[in-house]
Amino acid sequence: MKKNILVIPGDGIGQEVTQWGKAALEQIAKNFGHEFTFDEALMGHAAIEVTGNPLPDETLEKARRSDAILFGAIGHAMYDNDPSLKVRPEQGLLKIRKELGLYANLRPILLFDELLEASSIKAHILKGTDILFFRELTGDVYFGEKSRSEDRNTASDLMIYHRYEVERIAHKAYQAAQQRSKRLCSVDKANVLESSRLWRETVQEIAKQYPDVETEHMFIDNAAMQLIKNPKKFDVVLTANLFGDILTDEASQIAGSMGMLASASVGDGVGFYEPIHGSAHDIAGKNLANPLASILSAALMLEISIGLKEEATVLVNAVDKALKDGYRTGDIADQNTNAAKVLGTQEMGSKVLSLIK
């Protein structure tokens, strides 16, 4: 198997964790005799500092030529503290999703039993949870027309969806549900929002093509509550861009930490794989970041974009073994963790790599 993989470390801890996702892929290539060629590119604040552009043309061109992309994170505190800045790291991420047609964000909530106590939710509520989120990625308020009044006292963001945008991600979600427990929950706010009424109407039509899948519709406020009350209720969750952003961050508590959750952004071409955590500049460069989500993102890449399920399982099993052996980064350690087994970014990455070998 020969594949070209683009690594975009991005900002903050993204630069620390992607090296371990890449190292995991390199080790898999050695173990199984594959040939993975790697290139690297700038995006986000790092790209703004060098080029003034959060997504340089060179990066976009490399992305288009690659078979898959391993991404870290973007962002910097300077932008959070100054909302008036016109050029922002997030613009690069939104643009690459649009340019590559990455309309479906897949976020598996993979729960390792060893981390049941790391969550703020009671273990008996969590145990057995297995959720796959499908978040629409190229529509909604993030891409709708934005405006501010001349006196700067009124602002608006257009929440917009086209039927085809809902149809294409709904098909992907239903196809995944057919391979799982044949249950799908579509989340919207159809009692208030016209865009959600279009969403529900479209999903109801698509559901007729998948009669073997049980479909449930749920309002976003109820879904947010049920996710904490009874997460085992959900299997495949299909939702819009804004609602999916919120729900999947909420769901990170089910897995114990954002540092444990991988994601895939896919469409009909190249796939984009990243941890769901941000750039976390407050811990950047301190050897504190959790590299496991980047390694699990590499596993998603192997399975979805490269079609190597066995190899993907090797990475997941290596992470699982490290946890079973008691090793933790600070974000997933608890009062029962042996202090000698609380590892930094480099040490945890090395531990998992040794298990892959």
UniProtKB/TrEMBL annotation:
Main location: cytoplasm
Cofactor(s) it depends on: Mg(2+); Mn(2+)
EC number, UniProt record: 1.1.1.85
Residues annotated to bind substrate: 97, 107, 135, 221
Domain of life: Bacteria
Subunit note: Homodimer.
Residues annotated for Mg(2+) binding in this entry: 221, 245, 249
Residues with site note (Important for catalysis): 142, 189
Broad enzyme group: oxidoreductase
Organism name: Pedobacter ureilyticus
Family per similarity comment: Belongs to the isocitrate and isopropylmalate dehydrogenases family. LeuB type 1 subfamily.
Species lineage: Bacteria, Pseudomonadati, Bacteroidota, Sphingobacteriia, Sphingobacteriales
Protein name: 3-isopropylmalate dehydrogenase
Protein role: Catalyzes the oxidation of 3-carboxy-2-hydroxy-4-methylpentanoate (3-isopropylmalate) to 3-carboxy-4-methyl-2-oxopentanoate. The product decarboxylates to 4-methyl-2 oxopentanoate.
